Amino acid sequence: MKLQFAMDTLTTEKALELAAAAAPSVDIIELGTPLIKAEGLSAITAIKKAHPDKIVFADLKTMDAGELEADIAFEAGADLVTVLGVAGDSTIVGAVKAAKKHGKGIVVDLIGVADKSTRAKEVVALGAEFVEMHAGLDEQAEEGFTFGTLLDDGKTSGVPFSVAGGVKVDTIGSVQDSGATVAVAGAAIYGAPDVAAAAAELRAAIK
Ligand SMILES: O=C(CO)[C@H](O)[C@H](O)COP(=O)(O)O
Question: Mind listing the pLDDT tens digit for each residue in 1-47?
């Protein structure tokens, strides 16, 4: 299972600092949606330039203009770009077309999708590399939120999936046991007093 570090920060400078600290322990470096909104595509280019050996993940969360948005992110240096699962099939197909042009991949983020398992199968059939079983920051804060549902959805989908939404040291084992190909951790790494140590601890928890 790969480890992905989601950098939900607001400046390229801070993202470069976080990425440098975590890089030895992670496979995929994610530029969070707020970072891309704040800094633009140049942040993607800066991270790829600093970490050419890592998979750079641009969390665009595209909802429309799939081909155009994915194309500009791949041009900027992204290896994986997200499109929302609630978007129409034509948006996903357009983004996949851009990915094929660049020899890169589309990840479909299933945040907000009620039947994640069914949509997962549909979007992988449309050409997505894998899906993200994702509970966003707001959903995690809602009363009654349970992480286990994401794992069940992943298991029943039968397609390659990542899990995102509050992954930490005491839950990463269950993510791996669910069969996920990628565990995504944001706050558990960037919110830790020692970012390098937090990333190393998560890496060590993967069997
Ligand atoms: O995409 C995101 C929010 O929309 C986050 O990056 C993702 O949820 C992972 O962060 P955390 O581990 O802090 O929940």
Answer: 999 999 999 999 999 999 999 999 999 999 999 999 999 999 999 99
pLDDT digits (tens, 9 = 90+) for 128-172: 999 999 999 999 999 988 889 999 999 999 999 999 999 999 999
Question: Closest residue (by CA) to atom 6 of ligand 1?
Answer: 6
Report CA(20)–ligand 1 centroid distance (Å). 19
List the CATH number of the domain containing 33.
3.20.20.70
Cα angle: 187, vertex 192, 194; to 5 degrees: 140
Q: For residues 49-75, b (16+ Cβ closer than 10 Å) or e, as one string?
A: ebbeebbbbbbbbbeeebbebbbbbbe
Residues of the domain holding 168: 2-204
What is the pLDDT, as a whole number, of residue 146?
Answer: 83
Distance between Cα 165 and ligand 1 center (Å) = 5
Q: How far apart are CA 9 and CA 22, in angstroms?
A: 14
Distance, CA 99 to ligand 1 centroid (Å)?
A: 23
Look up residue 24 and give its two tokens: 């030895």
Number of domains in the chain: 1
ipTM surpassing 0.95:
yes
